[in-house]
Design brief:
Layout lengths: L3 E3 L1 H9 L4 E7 L4 H16 L4 E7 L4 H6 L7 E6 L2 E7 L4 H11 L2
Parallel strand pairs: 1-3, 2-3
Antiparallel strand pairs: 2-4, 4-5
Length: about 110
């Protein structure tokens, strides 16, 4: 896996410590759409490293964060801008839709 795995204790520091848009993929190992999403996110993280930082957070291992961000379906992609939650996408999303969201936030 190319994306950095974080836990709920690291989440706040990762989000606050970035000058870029931060994308956190809330996922679970058993989730098939999450598995399908992984290569899309890995490609985006490489191609658009100057615009976005991408992290993964396992919902099964980080229940407190999952509750705090009201994760009811996975995958859920939460975008943070300037240390605050900006928007989210739920379910499998195309690379184009994800990058459109990043570009909209970076305007």
């Amino acid at each position: 896996m190319l994306l950095r795995q974080i836990n709920q204790n690291e989440l706040k520091d990762v989000v606050k410590g970035s000058t870029k848009t931060v994308l956190v993929d809330f996922y679970a190992d058993w989730c098939m759409p999450c598995k399908m999403m992984a290569p899309v996110l890995e490609k985006l993280a490489i191609q658009y490293a100057s615009e976005v930082e991408v992290f993964k957070l396992n919902t099964d291992e980080n229940e407190q964060a999952s509750r705090a961000f009201e994760i009811f379906s996975i995958p859920t992609l939460i975008f943070f801008k300037e240390g605050k939650m900006a928007t989210r996408l739920v379910g499998f999303n195309s690379a184009d839709k994800i990058m459109d969201t990043v570009r909209r936030l970076n305007k």
